[in-house]
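Sample intake sheet
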Amino acid sequence: MPFVETLRSVVLPLVMAFCVLCGLLALLAPRAFAMFARNSSRWVESRKYLEYLDRTVDIDRFILSRSRLFGALLLLAIAWCAWRLYV
């Protein structure tokens, strides 16, 4: 299955590397993480039939006030995923 192998060998490591970078940023530089989170959040408008799902959930206050905990948990999750997938 070439698609699954491509996913496992290319896409998954790239996503995991991005998550590691986000986790390190949250763990080591909470202010920079907060600035990154503010600058990268964008609202995407959906159609009327998705109106129920078209509501905001403000997790920024919760995550940004606990960014070091979030960073540590994210790094732990990525380490566990890497261990399960590649060891």
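Comment: The longest helix spans residues 2-28. The CA atoms of residues 3 and 9 lie 10 Å apart.
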